[in-house]
Specification:
The complex is a heterodimer of chains A (373) and B (441). Chain A is α/β, with parallel strands linked by helices and 373 residues long. Chain A has 15 helices and 14 strands. Chain A has 2 domains: 2-30 and 243-371, Rossmann fold (3-Layer(aba) Sandwich); 44-233, Rossmann fold (3-Layer(aba) Sandwich), CATH 3.40.50. In chain A, 39% of the residues lie in helices and 18% in strands. The radius of gyration of chain A is 21 Å and the shape is globular. The chains are: A alpha/beta (373), B alpha/beta (441). The complex binds thiamine diphosphate and magnesium ion. Magnesium ion (MG) is lined by residues 230-232, 260, 262-263 of chain B.
Amino acid sequence: MATSVRGILNSCKLFANLHRQRACHPKIFARNASFTYLPDTPLQEHGETSRMNLFQSVNSAMDVALGNDPTAVIFGEDVAFGGVFRCTIGLKDKYGADRVFNSPLSEQGIVAFGIGLAVAGATAIAEIQFADYIYPAFDQITNEAAKFRYRTGDLFNCGALTIRTPCGAVGHGALYHSQSPEAFFSHIPGIKVVMPRGPIQAKGLLLSCIREGDPCIFFEPKILYRAAIEEVPVGDYQIPIGKAEIVLEGNDVTMVGYGTQVHVLREVATMAQEKLNVSCEVIDLRTLLPYDLDTILKSVIKTGRLIVTHEAPQTMGYSAEIATAVQEECFLNLEAPIQRVCGYDTPFAHVFEPFYMPDKWRLFEAVKKVVNF
Amino acid sequence: MFTRKLSRISKFLPSAAYRNGVGSRKLHIASVLYAPQSGRYEEKPEFPGSKSKFIHNLKFLNPDENEGIPVYRVMNRKGEILTESEDPKLDKDTVIKMYHDMTLLNTMDKILYESQRQGRISFYMTNFGEEGTHIGSAAALSPHDMVFGQYREAGVLMWRGFTLDQFMDQCYGNCNDHGQGKQMPVHYGSKELNFVTISSTLATQMPQASGAAYALKRSGKDRCVMCYFGEGAASEGDAHAAFNFAATLECPIIFFCRNNGYAISTPTKDQYRGDGIASRGAGYGMMTVRVDGNDVFATYNATKAARDICVKECRPVLIEAMTYRLGHHSTSDDSSAYRSVDEAAYWDKQDTPIARLRHFMLAKGWWNEEMEREWKAESKQMVMETFAKSEARKKPNPELLFTEVYKNMEWHIQKQQDAMKKHVMNYKEHYPLDNFEKWEQ
Ligand SMILES: Cc1ncc(C[n+]2csc(CCOP(=O)(O)OP(=O)(O)O)c2C)c(N)n1
Ligand SMILES: [Mg+2]
């Protein structure tokens, strides 16, 4: 070989360091910065904080879980060395290789192993490396985890199972490193589905999922792993499952989203205020199943207009449920048809990502549409 | 082809002395066996699906008692042929083509790897250290054999004639990429070259490959399927399905495992506890061989023989090629986080397929220092020139986002395509239209 491996590896290391500071290489990151991250402020009552990005806050949540619960274990592909997104870094050294370990490469195996652990009284935190690769485990999730309590007359349950998995667009993930499959799982009675918008939320929500009496799927928007940085409480705290949060109050249009889209919505709200003099209320759903319909209804009764957004394809998507439930409950309050601003009904295409995304311009257009109806 | 069926069944019958009949029905009929030690006549097990005898002392099968499955090699690390009769005796041109392809792949990998680091392409996976498995196996196949790959088999395509332009246009996802920029880099495919387009999802291609092999068998042509996969992917449920379907349905398929020691960071000791992947072959009733994947001739011989078995006898064969992944898993990975740089350096120094073949060629007088220098310069030049051309090409027309979801565009997708165009035209300045080919107004 002309260049020795040492040479290759060294140059890679150099690049890897560069890489770390930027989250993505510059060209791609620039193209992808379709949102501006607005950090949340931690609640005083949650105590001392430290600067963390999303993967660090997820790590911190699992650190707390392992520290408090001696039955808790973490496993999945490449988890032992810290995981491909660094979420489990340091945990094997701190808690031992019997508690933080690599699994063989099998998603159905990972979820089923987790169900078994939970049924036998352990706390199982399973990582699926990418949400795009969760489908081999679909049977175990939908037929097993979701129905364990129901079919055994509550003799057995796997409530102590949490499945964590990174999802969503990153600018260059293409078909199999970009998907947001939350709607499939939100269609399964017996599973709880959560997606945080940032580090503070992620830690509190993940700890709730881990301690929840029902099996949970925790989707982590992977673009936020490094791009989202906040002052995160270092101790133990929880954020309740099943409760949405109004992240921005407004009077004219209700905009509902979750995960990365919440940041896009915040920006759209600012644009709408500045350019259209329209006041938008932004709701972060946080839990997708069971979802907080009350908070949405109260808002829509006030504003009379609703926009729902997600990265996943529109048809039969998550937003269809929200739109239906809202028109069932407050048809007469609506001033305009409910708008869905979603991914298109195509696979997630590599170079076309900027055109695929439900970005701030598409959302801005939807705001114009509902106020001018 | 189908005559094999009978001859295979006869293998499962007790040997002639104990046979009380012929024909497959007898498989399920108890045969009586004389046991000389006890002087008694004993029954053979009649259970459907077993072909063994009774024992009277409890004994577990302990895999630790077995010696490992041996590794077949033709050349040692110095490129010396170990057993003359095993030399495939390939002609000089073929061997030089092998070397050219292995080194061209290596050069392309270096340049594309660097280009990702500079943000020019979004992602890349190198093949460093595994060139021997690609070229040795590809050279032994017929170009009509169908390939189902994983993602680290670019050399197979190179051997079959995929051009540098095709590689790099795909990595750039530009308007010349057959896949229209839809997939990530290294997800190549070619209909003419019988290479089914790569999918990122691990092991999904394996049972598909078994199905394809069944179709080829029924088509009656002397073709087989070549299915590549990593030792990590072999842990997926799909791998089991693939092996079992191929064996029970007697499919002409070669399962070619590239055992390179790692699945991203996961070393083989966390992946399996048996004797590699080869030890599984017998469990499925498959002919199996383990080869030194850094030995391009051993890989060639094993694949050629496996192909003969597949095509002539219509049964699957498992090849486990032992090699080492010299590079990082991909551009998203930094392998120094889980393995020592010294470990990789050891393999790079002691045993690469390229160096081995070069030693062989030097000893034959088919290659020399000057040819090496010239070829290096020439291949680098070719790669750089192609690279520049691919980089300069525009991305495909954004409308193509919506094509090929279905054979024909369905109404709801048409509606979205129209909406996308209208929206982008209204907000032109916010979309990177300049980088893309223009659409019709
Ligand atoms: C179903 C699925 N799960 C996980 C992944 C993520 N992934 C990509 S490559 C890889 C390791 C594969 O290792 P191996 O099969 O040994 O092939 P190698 O990379 O060593 O060539 C993993 C876990 C994936 N692509 N598909
Ligand atoms: Mg491997």
